[in-house]
Amino acid sequence: DIQMTQSPSSLSASVGDRVTITCRASQSIRNNLNWYQQKPGIAPKVLIFAASSLQSGVPSRFSGNRSENDFSLTIMDLQPDDSASYYCQQSYSTPFTFGPGTKVHLK
Amino acid sequence: QVTLRESGPALVKPTQTLTLTCTFSGFSLNTSGMCVSWVRQSPGKAPEWLALIDWDDDKYYSTSLKTRLTISKDASKNQVVLTMTNLDPVDTGTYYCARNRFSSNWLPLDSWGQGTLVTVSS
């Protein structure tokens, strides 16, 4: 199975900050990497697919990037509504696997 | 509008078999490229993908759970069923069904049900 790692496991930032979360795959997954946001008690919601494509309806302050097997999710101009957990997921091959997650807290 | 809804027992005893049903609308599993996945999440943990069934009735499973899982579909009823055998308390969590698609590559899980909480306890 392809292993996904994420860092940091949690972060605290202020409204208006820029935050970056990174994700690494244990082998090449090309650009088959998706980012999800999850709030307590609610199902995950896809933000970014194919490493850098913004899902319809998602604010443009969210962006994704890829460098080989390293991926990043950047949130510009952090908003209170962005307080959530964020997960990466590879869809290169089954079994699909998720990263362990990053909790974003607002100061 | 795509919607999915999970249904099944809230409480299951250890060693029993769990049967969950996903009822969906807004798409058809008879359409090329359409798929439904099951994902679970233990409290405080990351989501864990369990299984997928596609429009062509191909099935894919979690490596660690494949001996205990069976996924099936009834496309005429817009339903996907997941069974998991030999339940253990560590299987406690929220179980989601989600739609994804295949178009040259696997696409993300773009629509999710609200999830159903399953507790395994005697």
What is the helix fraction of residues of chain A, given as a range?
A: under 10%
Strand content of chain A: over 45%
What's the total count of β strands of chain A? 11
> Which stretches of chain A are low in confidence, meaning pLDDT under 50 for 5 or more residues running?
none
Q: Main β-sheet of chain B: number of strands, strand sense, barrel status? A: 8 strands, mixed
Largest interface: A-B, 26 and 23 residues
What coarse outline of chain B follows from CA principal-axis ratios? globular
What would the principal axes of the Cα set say about the shape of chain A?
globular
Mean pLDDT figure of chain B: 97
Strands of chain B, count: 12
Cα distance, first to last residue of chain B? Answer: 40 Å
Element-level helix/strand string of chain A: EEEEEEEEEEE
Structural class of chain A comes to mainly beta
Rg calc of chain B = 14 Å
Q: Helical element count of chain A? A: 0
Quaternary structure classification: heterodimer
Summarize the biggest pleated sheet of chain A: 7 strands, mixed
What order do the helices and strands come in, and which of them pair?
The complex is a heterodimer of chains A (107) and B (122).
Chain A: E1 4-7, E2 10-13, E3 19-25, E4 33-38, E5 45-49, E6 53-54, E7 62-67, E8 70-75, E9 84-90, E10 97-98, E11 102-106
Chain B: E1 3-7, E2 11-12, E3 18-25, E4 34-41, E5 48-54, E6 59-61, E7 69-74, E8 79-84, E9 93-103, E10 105-106, E11 111-112, E12 116-120
Parallel strand pairs in B: 2-12
Antiparallel strand pairs in B: 1-3, 3-8, 4-5, 4-9, 5-6, 7-8, 9-10, 9-11, 9-12
Could you explain the architecture of this structure?
The complex is a heterodimer of chains A (107) and B (122). Chain A is mainly β and 107 residues long. Chain A has strands spanning 4-7, 10-13, 19-25, 33-38, 45-49, 53-54, 62-67, 70-75, 84-90, 97-98, 102-106. The termini of chain A are far apart. The model of chain A has no long low-confidence stretch (mean pLDDT 97). Chain B is an all-beta fold and 122 residues long. The relative contact order of chain B is 0.32. At the A-B interface, strand 4, strand 5 and strand 10 of A face strand 5, strand 9 and strand 10 of B.
